[in-house]
Specification:
- The structure is a homotetramer.
- The first copy, chain A, starts with a helix and ends with a helix.
- By secondary structure, chain A is an alpha/beta fold.
- The first copy, chain A, has helices spanning 5-8, 16-19, 35-44, 53-60, 70-84, 99-111, 140-153, 172-184, 200-209, 227-233, 243-262, 275-281, 284-294, and strands at 27-32, 49-51, 88-91, 116-120, 158-163, 189-192, 215-217, 237-240.
- The first copy, chain A, contains 13 helices and eight strands.
- In chain A, helix 5 packs parallel to helix 6 (99-111) and helix 8 (172-184) packs across helix 9 (200-209).
- Chain B binds chain D through residues 65-67, 69-72, 97-98, 100-101, 104, 124-125, and chain D through 65-67, 69-72, 97-98, 100-101, 104, 124-125.
Chain lengths: 297, 297, 297, 297
């Protein structure tokens, strides 16, 4: 609920170029999966968030196969946006159905404070891109209809088309053809996804795409590539798509196992955040000040 | 959605003595704040969960002052119970209003799979017990009415009364008087809360209480006390109330800051869980098997 | 929250034959679309409710094309079940996706108090059966997988398969073949849907089906058929699928227009329910008694 | 999802004087309790909606004593605003707790499309104003703090203070003193509530208030008063607070009872709306056009 000057400052991040699309060098967008991880990303210095489908599903205890309803996802997005006051790009999976479901979802997250949405050219329900081989691409025309429907319903929402062509085993030509079709449909950027462990596919795509629209990448598998490679390739945006989630999983597993074994928390007390850290992150100070301001003394 | 033998086994934890109240020695109950942390607690070996008000609030990006609505809390409880299949004791704060709000909340979480609820003798909206000095106790009779209303509405839900007498600066006699009144109201156990850094108050309470009902403690501040002290004092249950949350906060902060500074994830990749870990935690294997079973081949 | 004797009585309606499937004559199940209409159906004497997809969508202000998320539908079902304490058969549309979405939905409504679910052999997102010609049947094997997944996940939930074969213009043989396939998949009853204005199709189906499983019908279009026709045909259940909704629409439109024109409510005051009627329907008396019981006097 | 010219027109109702506060004569605001009733109010010609606490509670199957959570109320408000595209003034009851709960609720409904909120000077949980005698007024200073907190958090939301002084049996002077205090706190209008069967109290209040701020009334009990009385008294807004709900209750009860008795719908078929009426209200035509525009042909 705070309205302190440093918070208000982020409201000036109005243009996509200010938080999402880099020009001289890529911008970096951090995964969040709930209000807390959104606040932490902000405190770390990030100017924009990726509301990760995998992250949100996992923290809810669902699998990344559209097990969570679209409105549950929208509720999480609202918490991220309100708690962090950062611009949020939402992982909209496939749009949760056809063009009509996609535009209803887009309107819902726009109301809840999202600033952008990304949808991918697969069918509902989807499966996480890093799992198995059952990845079937949507028909290009049908998917373009989903994109146009979102754009018409929410002209102010940044719209990103994510092509899973390379994930599905299609050719680079297919990926490029799809990207051009989605550009015709009116999107603001293209996310090209790859699960190779090097950036070869990405760099190849970017060089042939010639920056018709900003290019967004998700270097989860090809994480060893240095950022200068992306810069040279003209990548606009790098999404760190699941790292806050994965950090929390490792830590919770280690600490839980240790406590279970020790039957005590004294062994881990020094290695975890304090309650005071949490009160500071959530700005309990503002609540105290507000009590001074609004409660009779 | 899994129904594997080891999951099903937990359905036999029907009696409070099987997951919540220890007799020979205390049982340990682990904090969870979402579906994921609930699964992790289970994998670590815990037989019961504490759906922490602080934890749920924080992960939603709210402060622990009843900023989250009671139905939002109930939705999180549902995810914990379904994802982990563990018995869940829910931190019901003050019951979210009067006796009527309290019983509506209790019925809601019972439907969503909770097995117990704990409410504390303060007024709505509450403030976290570790913050400041504005902790005003509820009238004993009024609070007893809240307890009776829950018990009448949900006779199968384990009902714990938490007295904040010592937190509010009242005497040990007051704490004991309240505990006896709550016992008369029909509760199944007493949670005695202390924010001293040693277990003196707790041990004193337990020795004078003489096990009229099981005693539950939350050793957040007095964490250095060895478990044998609790055992000797006849404590039935020890709640590790916020440690999974605090572990995740430390890890997410460190990793987020490092990624922001490095403009790369390669420095942290080895120190966080893998995607495969996550797929295993969420039992993606079951989904694959189910596709074999239910989809045409 | 009431637990008065007449409410408690309904908890004895445990068997499908007690509220859903008639043997000597059909049972009648009434549409509800929110908590209020559920209470009204109960007061009128009905022993079971149909949580109508059209009704729920419309009252939420959505179209009956899966615009509402499955979790929003589940939330409405919960209000119906809790407010009325009647058994509820839920219109689950197509199951909201594939077998996995269907079983997740089924588990969700089972927790929320539903006693049965009906899904239809079309694809997600669906369109209301009384609109247009774009009704494409699902593959029989794939749909049977959806049914088996629900039955395995929720063995205690009454499972009804609704075939849209006749709506989609397929033959009676196709309808029967599908019904037999769904029976093999383990359903508890078959809903045969028709949009003809006479009951010919329904009677024909029933005579050839020979009561392998109970038959459920929805006489929305063929409403002039006398009930003895259904009885002779051996129909187990008649669903009045949208009549409470349609009654409310007519009344709200008339009253709203009259008030707008008159700039006064005095002309309609005598033709609408009183506040006291509403307080009685919602059992405010129980709240008053509970205040006596649970609040300090 | 429609964006047809007549819908878009309502977006010009930006100023409170255009939909809420009349100057020459009162403006009339119509109760709605869900998306459907909101659409119906719009079609009847109303330019603004009252999201009634009684109406929303009742349709959810809850009693008007804050049994519904604040976030459930906010979800209903969202459906009203999106489905009708009309400006909505939300009945915020007492603000759902203290100043902090009140401002969180206000922010939530503002995101969901509400244009104004009204809160009343009682304590949480409240009881409907037409029931019983247990109506205790909030401390004026404390309530003013709730008002200021909302105004600071949501400066663009029209803020109405409702005084229950006359309902609680306090004097006219007390009502006026409170109204002046709330004006100092920065509200945009005063709702003066009365449960007398004539407009005497209201007219008296207005004459002594001298239009310091717009006055809003709710003529539920004193419904026979002609509108010219309000006009002469300088009333800015008249809320028809529960009439759509009450119309629907009467109609649903009559129709449900008749169907139950007749075991047939043929007797009521002519007296209720048709499915086609519903398809027209919900603008299924737009969906058909959108399918033409967005689906491959």
């Amino acid at each position: 609920m705070t309205a302190s000057p440093q918070n208000a400052a982020y409201h000036h991040l109005q243009e996509p170029s200010e938080w999402l699309f880099g020009t001289v060098e890529p911008r970096f967008v951090m995964e969040a999966h709930d209000g807390l991880s959104a606040i932490i990303a902000r405190k770390a210095g990030f100017l924009g968030l990726w509301a990760s489908g995998l992250g949100i599903s996992t923290s809810l205890g669902y699998r990344d196969s559209n097990e969570a309803s679209w409105s549950s996802v929208a509720d999480v997005v609202e918490r991220m946006a309100e708690a962090s006051r950062l611009p949020v790009l939402v992982d909209g999976d496939t749009g949760f159905g056809n063009f009509n479901n996609a535009r209803i979802f887009a309107r819902s997250i726009a109301r809840r404070g999202a600033r952008g949405v990304c949808i991918e050219d697969k069918q509902f329900p989807k499966l996480n891109s890093f799992i198995g081989d059952r990845h079937y691409l949507a028909d290009t025309k049908e998917f373009s209809g989903r994109l146009r429907a979102i754009k018409d319903a929410c002209p102010d929402l940044v719209l990103i088309a994510r092509t899973e062509a390379l994930i599905a085993g299609a050719s680079m030509e297919e990926a490029l053809d799809r990207a051009h079709a989605y550009a015709e449909a009116g999107v603001d950027g293209i996310l090209i996804h790859s699960r190779r462990s090097d950036a070869g596919e990405i760099v190849d795509f970017a060089s042939r795409w010639k920056n018709r629209l900003p290019v967004i990448i998700v270097p989860t598998r090809y994480h060893t590539t240095p950022v200068c490679t992306y810069q040279e390739a003209g990548i606009a945006t790098v999404i760190w798509a699941n790292h806050s989630l994965r950090a929390s999983v490792r830590a919770m597993r280690q600490v839980s196992s240790r406590i279970f074994r020790d039957r005590s928390v004294s062994g881990i007390e020094g290695g975890i955040s304090t309650l005071e850290d949490i009160f500071e992150l959530l700005d309990y100070g503002e609540l105290g000040e507000a009590e001074q301001r609004y409660l009779p003394q």
